[in-house]
Amino acid sequence: MSTITTADGTEIFYKDWGPKDAQPIVFHHGWPLSSDDWDAQMLFFLSKGFRVVAHDRRGHGRSAQVSDGHDMDHYAADASAVAEHLDLRNSVHIGHSTGGGEVARYVAKFGEPQGRVAKAILVSAVPPLMLKTEANPGGLPIEVFDGIRAGLAANRAQLFVDFPTGPFYGFNRQGAEVSQGVINNWWRQGMMGSAKAHYEGIKAFSETDQTEDLKAITVPTLVLHGEDDQVVPIADSALLSVKLLKNGTLKTYPGYPHGMLTTHAEVINADLLAFITS
């Protein structure tokens, strides 16, 4: 397997496919998954001649199940370590859900200052802040995230069945075309990772205020979000993010779920390609 070791000694697994002289597209996965969640996008962009790179977040997939560092700063630093190791330049960074938060922090703190990033894309992403606070009254109450933590601690295997069977892909909606294979693959990816990383990652994706990250990003940034996202409500994420970005573009999809990268891959891939090549 291809791995790097970060400054704090964490082994991070990554994939690096395609011509090394082609423009890199770097994919950042959501909670509690792995780089495998990007299969449909990586194969698509590989067929278009791009170099495609993705890593497993610490504690997720095939990366080390370390005890510490399950927060957005470490996530971004780990992503930067991969980009520096591979010397990726003129890159497009695409993040889904928690991975969108990782992209925002990486681009603001590392990617732009190092001159490595050409564009960014946030898909069904958690920024600017999911948690309801006095400053963010439209967010979700802490009880929502406490409930996920309780479910994970009590029976992670069952939670990781319920999530993809229900809200993640919109399979709980009337008329939805349910794929058991997609559900099984979500469960497989989740159960590969560390319960501690997943438990502490809930705080990372729900309580990290990324307002300043979004304000700091100057590269062209595409914000994509499903209007029927039951996991990261569009009104509290994408609609706010695009207002904070200096060079942001918003595209929404009526009826699309949180996991639209999988359920509607052909549509999303075409829109990603159009933005990247524009």
TrEMBL record:
<dbReference type="Pfam" id="PF00561">
    <property type="entry name" value="Abhydrolase_1"/>
</dbReference>
<dbReference type="InterPro" id="IPR000073">
    <property type="entry name" value="AB_hydrolase_1"/>
</dbReference>
<comment type="similarity">
    <text>Belongs to the AB hydrolase superfamily. Bacterial non-heme haloperoxidase / perhydrolase family.</text>
</comment>
<feature type="domain" description="AB hydrolase-1">
    <location>
        <begin position="24"/>
        <end position="261"/>
    </location>
</feature>
<keyword id="KW-0560">Oxidoreductase</keyword>
<dbReference type="GO" id="GO:0004601">
    <property type="term" value="F:peroxidase activity"/>
</dbReference>
<keyword id="KW-0575">Peroxidase</keyword>
<protein>
    <submittedName>
        <fullName>Non-heme chloroperoxidase</fullName>
    </submittedName>
</protein>
<dbReference type="InterPro" id="IPR050471">
    <property type="entry name" value="AB_hydrolase"/>
</dbReference>
<dbReference type="InterPro" id="IPR029058">
    <property type="entry name" value="AB_hydrolase_fold"/>
</dbReference>
<dbReference type="InterPro" id="IPR000639">
    <property type="entry name" value="Epox_hydrolase-like"/>
</dbReference>
